[in-house]
Design brief:
With 355 residues, this protein is α/β, with parallel strands linked by helices. The protein has 10 helices and 19 strands. The strands form 5 sheets. Strands 3, 4, 5, 10, 11, 18 and 19 form a 7-stranded mixed beta sheet that branches. Strands 14-13-12-15-16-17 form a 6-stranded parallel beta sheet, sandwiched between helices. A two-stranded antiparallel sheet has the order 1-2. Its EC number is 1.1.1.2.
Length: 355
């Protein structure tokens, strides 16, 4: 019998974004290319806070069950699904659907589809609502479901599916590896993954942060250098870096100085998404070394599988805090206070809903 409903921790008012309410709701239909996953655990992402607080704008759905870093077991598959079987441990990240027909989808850029279905607060083309992973079950198209290597514990793999993939994609697309120097701006949930995966890929990683408070952590994660962005920090770093990834969600970064540290023709890639946007970049800075200011959005399935394989092979160990799902408000508050070190993982504690 097809599972028709899930139960999740929902936010029903953006003004009360810490008031999670256990709510039963209808799942989207089990289409031929979709997989139903029984949620074992779910990571907590900065995107969750931006969404439920209204920082990224009004909601598309009536309420929001957030969470898009899901690990669980397959419990149903559509008739056209070939890659997954019931009982298999899988992951689902920040996207659950795309059109499958556009140029982007046909060229391994499905995360850039013009008609995506996101991990929550989103509608399918038929206007069915999709909710996220602070819940008992989620559904996703087969393309957005990832096999999890046996060597990766579920709580370690969970936040890789957004936090990890968001930095892994620009790392590999911009050639991070042996002999390359990568700068990472900010050491939060995303930044710590940029250090871990940049190091696992063989690059030399330098962390930039506002103060020395996280220096010890950065070096333990594998960074070779830690630079506090105090006045004059960039004076001796001209043409130093092959890539800089900005993981901080702030519009008050010293972007001119950071851009000046790039080698000729290289990129500064934003994966942090400040709510207020950017206003402090001068074109004159870009012209001095032909630098590019760019951005990136999660990653494709091939990159997700490669990331998980690398994490298993290199024993990548994220710095995580494990909580019960009922403590979602505590985890969101830690994101807001910037006190989480460095990702929170919520363990399923909801009684399974019956079909």
């Amino acid at each position: 019998m097809t599972i028709t409903h899930a139960t999740g921790y929902a936010i029903k008012d953006a003004k009360k974004y810490l008031d999670f309410e256990l709510t039963k709701y209808e799942l989207e239909p089990l289409e031929d290319d979709r997989v139903t996953v029984n949620v074992e655990c779910c990571g907590v992402c900065g995107s969750d806070h931006h969404t439920i607080s209204g920082g990224w704008g009004p909601w598309e759905t009536k309420f929001v069950v957030t969470g898009h870093e899901v690990i669980g077991k397959v419990v149903e598959v559509g008739k056209n699904v070939t890659e997954f079987k019931v009982g298999q441990r899988v992951g689902v990240g920040a996207q659950v659907g795309s059109c499958g027909q556009c140029k982007q989808c046909k060229n391994d850029n499905e995360q850039y589809c013009a008609n995506p279905v996101h991990g929550y607060n989103t509608l399918w083309p038929d206007k069915a609502e999709h909710q996220g992973g602070y819940s008992t079950h989620i559904r996703a198209q087969e393309r957005f479901v990832f096999p999890i290597p046996e060597a990766l514990p579920s709580v370690n793999a969970a936040s890789m599916l957004c936090g990890g993939l968001t930095v892994f994609s620009p790392l590999v697309r911009n050639g991070a590896g042996p002999g390359k120097k990568v700068g990472v701006v900010g050491l939060g949930g995303l930044g710590h993954y940029a250090v871990l995966f940049g190091t696992a890929l063989g690059a030399e990683v330098t962390v930039f942060s506002r103060s020395d408070a996280k220096k010890e952590d950065a070096l333990k994660m594998g960074a070779k250098r830690f630079i506090a962005t105090t006045p004059g920090f960039a004076d001796d770093l001209k043409f130093e870096f092959d890539l800089i990834i900005v993981t901080a969600s702030s519009s008050r970064l010293p972007l001119d100085e950071l851009l000046s540290t790039l080698d000729v023709g290289q990129k500064l890639v934003f994966v942090g998404m400040p709510e207020e946007g950017l206003t402090n970049v001068r074109s004159q800075t870009l012209s001095g070394n032909a630098a590019s200011l760019a951005s990136s959005h999660i990653g494709n399935k091939k990159e997700a599988i490669a990331m998980l394989k690398l994490a298993a092979e290199k024993n990548v160990q994220p710095w995580i805090n494990v909580l019960q799902m009922k403590d979602a408000a505590k985890a969101i508050k830690a994101v807001e206070d910037n006190s989480v070190r460095y990702r929170s993982i919520l363990i399923q504690d909801i009684e399974p809903v019956k079909a």
